[in-house]
Amino acid sequence: MKFAIVFATVLTVALGAAISGDKDAVIVKADFDNIGTDGFNYAYETSNGISAQEQGQLLNQGAENEAIAVRGQFQYVGPDGVTYAVQYIADENGFQPQGAHLPVAP
Question: What is the pLDDT of residues 19-52, one digit of tens each?
């Protein structure tokens, strides 16, 4: 479970970087306020239109059903000039993204 959440986070950052291709982009905002053993909260924005925000918390700490619950969003400007935004939840039910450009399951 923890691997899936970490993988989704890394994929989010990698996807944004791969699509932009802007090697001169700089970080214009970064907030890493609360990163600890019981949860985290961060946000960043770059000069080329990439931004992300995520917060997570440890549920049922120390119990057999301990899990991490994450909520977040990211956005980037695609090669077509359109800004794509995705909101997501990642928890014991898996990664659940939502975005206007994403297909919806029947």
Answer: 445 788 899 999 887 777 778 999 999 999 999 9
For residue 75, the cross-strand partners are 51, 85
Whether pTM exceeds 0.85:
no
CA dihedral 24, 14, 98, 59 (to 10 degrees): -120
Name, in order, each residue with C-beta under 8 angstroms of 6's C-beta and a sequence gap of 6 or more.
none
* 78, 99 contact by CB (below 8 A): no
Scanning the structure block, which residue is given the tokens 């770059």? 46
| C-alpha span between 45 and 85 (Å, rounded) | 13
